[in-house]
Amino acid sequence: MDSSFTGGHAVIEFNDLVLQEEDVLGEGGKGFQYAQVRLAPARLTHCMRWLGAAQRAHDVAADYASKRMAFGKVLGKHEGVGFMLADNEIEMRASRLSLQQACWVLDQGGRGTTESSMAKVQCSETSWNVVDRSLQILGGKGMTDDTPVARIFRDIRAFRIYDGPSEVHRWSLAGKVIKKIKQRNEPVV
Ligand SMILES: Cc1cc2nc3c(=O)[nH]c(=O)nc-3n(C[C@H](O)[C@H](O)[C@H](O)COP(=O)(O)OP(=O)(O)OC[C@H]3O[C@@H](n4cnc5c(N)ncnc54)[C@H](O)[C@@H]3O)c2cc1C
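^ thats the input. predicted complex w/ flavin-adenine dinucleotide below
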């Protein structure tokens, strides 16, 4: 499904699987709970990886925009392209800070569920936007395998789906917003 992982992902089906008591890791019925513990830090490492890939795509695009002449000047000096490069920098900076703050919460011993949800949505959507803009700046070359951008573009799309799709993180965050406002004892004016 995602060529950046060696061999991609497999789908495994178990039929009539019988486990002995000693084969069970942890307590029975708690598998989902255990899996959740791993999710916050794991999704943050994906954020790091994809922000790095987005930065690489941005660097390739910026290099092209600094050399390619169009309509009398280099591409990057045309606002339409220059502003895309600026937006890439702005969004990656904000995503990195959000990611670092989520990591800091985990380092303090917190669960970081809210922070990791926010960072995951922000990093996955930012990375996607950055790579899309970078490919656009490269024009036709962006669609070829002459640069790594086309491959990054193909692989990065899945990150808005795995480790919690954007919609599910937003749904979870929205639930917390409603819960918090309901718990407020003073009138909201
Ligand atoms: C490349 C790749 C790698 C993966 N790696 C792993 C892995 O290592 N381990 C693992 O366990 N899984 C992995 N997955 C599975 C991944 O976690 C699921 O695909 C993902 O959680 C979405 O579940 P689903 O495919 O069943 O979609 P569904 O749950 O059917 O969702 C379909 C769509 O509906 C939306 N949706 C769902 N609920 C809501 C809601 N409440 N409000 C609004 N919209 C909603 C979703 O956002 C999505 O757009 C991987 C998937 C991909 C593509």
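The mean pLDDT is 93.
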